[in-house]
Predict the 3D structure of the following.
Amino acid sequence: MSQNPPSESSLVREFRGQRGSRRPVWFMRQAGRSLPEYKKAREGVGMLESCLMPELAAEITLQPVRRHDVDAGIFFSDIVVPLKLAGVDVDIVAGVGPVLGQPIRTAADIDALPELEDEALEPIRQAVRLAVAELGSTPLIGFAGAPFTLAAYMVEGKPSRDHLGPRTMMHADPGAWKALCDWTARTSGKFLAAQLEAGASAGQLFDSWAGSLGLADYTRHVQPASAQVFDAVHALGKPLVHFGTGTSELLCAMRDAGADVVGVDYRLSLTEANRRLDGKTPLQGNIDPALLKAPWDVLEAHVREVIAAGSEAPGHVVNLGHGVPADTDPAVLTRVVELIHSIDYPAAS
Ligand code: CP3
């Protein structure tokens, strides 16, 4: 293993558009239920509780790096952890996702939201420091939920398919919607800044549900709040990725919110994504998670296609087009990493 600092790693260089011959790879949700060692570590410990135990959170962050030889760790936490740290009544229900004790529906509900205090972030900073110390030259990626995705959970009170509640609110009560997005942007910005300041080498903003919005609504009612999160951490000088699902029509608007790298889901080829972004933005993605269960030759051909398409962009970090499904055979992920690392491309001149 090289002794270079994480800021000189292949992942960070690729995010900056400095091409190497070996493609860096990590997987969204690489930590978690696909790993038996994760299930063992989590026995008897609630999801949010585990995120607030620094040694445990650092250990879970490291598990997939040890097992798969991926080129980055993703900090083990959740997009609703900063809500919990601010004092919002939220839990993660196994098999369901984030659930709020009381959905946020009115201007008065939004006014009453507690501020996330800096001291509350101490367990996050501690976990990041522990993980970074163990990772050595391998970079850690910090993350936060984007204002829309967080607001969607807060208004619905639980996961939803169509996100009708937040989509109604942004039109019916734009003042309340803006106040809610200001709160989520501030809260996510502090959460992401804490991770980057404690040693994470890059950051990713997850707008998992932005794909339920058309471009006009996204640009008017969501993009300014996401830009606020990027603005809050931009001065730290670390590469920032913006990812959503079903966001093929929003790629340029997501870049323009302030991202250095755009994460592409499995629906759009990297060739087309690169074309839409004028060939100027490094990409991350986009192996279809469904193919992790296909015969190896089918998966291998798909991975090679993704890498070839990604080579047209100014930089490419390989990832899935969404998170690792819980029932994935971890041996398949390890094999995919080996394959990606075995493919040499000439560095761009
Ligand atoms: O490897 C990693 O990516 C680790 C860190 C991570 C988790 N959640 C851990 C987690 C990250 C980056 C997230 C982000 C997250 N959380 C997103 C954005 C990414 C995406 O998938 O679109 C969203 C939408 C959430 C909200 C959330 N938290 C959901 C929908 C769920 C799944 C609920 C379920 O049980 O099916 C969670 C829980 C969660 N977050 C788990 C993990 C490992 C599973 C909890 C468990 O093991 O019981």
Residues 6-342 form a domain with the TIM Barrel fold (CATH 3.20.20.210). Residues 28-33, 47, 74, 76-79, 92, 94-98, 143, 149, 159, 206, 208, 323 surround coproporphyrinogen III (CB under 6 Å). The two ends are 26 Å apart (CA to CA).
